[in-house]
Amino acid sequence: MLHTAARPVPLSVSQGPKLKTECAARTCKLLCSRPYSHHQQLHRTFTPVMASASFKQSPTDKVLLLGITGITGRCALSGLLSGGLQPSRLLAVSRNPNSAASMAVAQQGIEVVAGDLDAPATLEPHLGRVGRVYCHALSGDAASADPAELARGRALAQLLTGRDMQLVVYNSSAGRGSNAGISQMDQKHGVEDVLLDAGLPALMLEATMFMEEFWKKYTRPGLLKGSFTFSLPGDRPLQLVAARDVGLAAATALTSSSPADWAGQRLPLAGDELTPLQMCEAFSAAQGGMPIKHSSPPAWLFWFLSRDLWRITTFLRDTGFDADVAACRQRVPGLLTFEQFLAATCWGDTARTYEQGIRFDGLLPGAGKQLVARD
Predict the structure, then answer these.
(1) Is the pLDDT of residue 49 over 50?
(2) Which residues pair with 374 in a beta bridge?
(3) pLDDT tens digits along 234-274
(4) Does the reported pTM lie above 0.70?
(5) pLDDT-based confidence at residue 369 (cuts at 50, 70, 90)
(6) 169 CA to centre of own chain
């Protein structure tokens, strides 16, 4: 039940081993001098850093995008654009630029080039054109950690080391120090360490549970019928963030006139915090008032389905995320609440599916407006 690049997936008995774990939550350190070593830690601080409206890039200083062609990657791309990054300044890497997903990115005016971190030399021709990087994912969704993810992290660090990089933003996972034993989570923390130990000016975006998870086929169909099966007690708070807003946070840092202010930080991301019962109310409102009933399978059932899924369930029940939601919203203005997310993605439109890709084209409640990219 955790993140895309392992993101928490809703815990239901029917979902089986389809889990992900890129959840995240805690600001562990703020480093103020180079090299950016993950062994140096300062206490948690939240100093608002606003994006610079005057952010300019030279033609040879684009933002490199990695892992952006998947569904949550494209959600993050929506946030990058909303956060002020112009399509002409983005350079997206894809193993197959001719795929449907890559062409969907290209149709937004973004240059898509061939590259593969499993063959690092394929990225070399493009690195002279970029000065900032956003890495959304280094592996696909899986029920257990993909060893190639860490190898790709090492390859990325090696490619970027020695180059004039202003900021490298990595979409990571939560739970550092929780000792939850979740393989995907631990491996993403390993990638964080690789990037920081390489001396790169890196920002780790540690997202809590992706709101987009509820769009998936093991959760959304039941909800549209009035049933919310989710293995948390009805009164247990759960912190959430939209994958779109990971991109928004990345854009806030990448468009900053002082990217060094962001380097070396682990930034928790949560746009909202609700109990399953409160989420039922939000789903009901988005579905025209249909009553939604929550049921919570016991955690021990997941021991037989997937040990990682059991560990995730136990983590969310017993520990959970500890992001400061108010501080996150101050640091990154525009983070969506869960109610806003459901409205923006037109949750109540039963014809929409996760597999089609999630579009943020609905009207925000109370505002009567759509999410739009900044000029």
Answers:
(1) no
(2) none
(3) 999 999 999 999 999 999 999 998 998 999 999 989 999 99
(4) yes
(5) low
(6) 11
Q: Look up residue 176 and give its two tokens.
A: 């550092």
**Which pair of tokens denotes residue 354?**
């996760």
Give the type of residue at 19.
L
pLDDT digits (tens, 9 = 90+) for 91-145: 999 999 999 999 999 999 999 999 999 999 999 999 999 999 999 999 986 667 7
**pLDDT score for 186:** 85
Token output for 26: 């805690």
> What is the Cα–Cα distance from 239 to 229, expressed in whole angstroms?
17
Reduce the secondary structure of the chain to three states and give it as a string: CCECCCECCCCCHHHCCCCCCCCCCCCCCCCCCCCCCCCCCCCCCCCCCCCCCCCCCCCCCEEEEECCCCHHHHHHHHHHHHCCCCHHHEEEEECCCCCHHHHHHHCCCCEEEECECCEHHHHHHHHCCEEEEEECCCCCCCCCCCHHHHHHHHHHHHHHCCCCCCEEEEEECCCCCCCCCCHHHHHHHHHHHHHHHCCCCEEEEEECEEHHHHHCCCCHHHHHCCEEECCCCCCCCEEEECHHHHHHHHHHHHCCCCHHHCCCCEEEECCEEECHHHHHHHHHHHCCCCCCEEECCCCCHHHHHCHHHHHHHHHHHHCCCCCCHHHHHHHCCCCCCHHHHHHHCCCCCCCCCHHHCCCCCCCCCCCCCCCCCCC
Return the structure tokens found at 96: 């197959």
Nearest Cα neighbor of 173 from 125, 147, 209, 214 is 209
- With tokens 């990971």, the residue in question is 246
Total Cβ atoms within 10 A of residue 127: 16
Say yes or no to pLDDT of 28 above 50.
Answer: no
Distance CA 1, CA 7 (A): 7
Q: Tell me which amino acid residue 96 is.
A: N
**Cis? peptide before 282, omega within 30° of 0:** no
pLDDT of residue 151: 96
Token code pair at residue 314: 């136990």
Instruction: Say which residue the tokens 């929550």 belong to.
Output: 294
* Amino acid at the residue 90: L
Residues 215-236 pLDDT 10s? 999 899 999 999 999 989 999 9
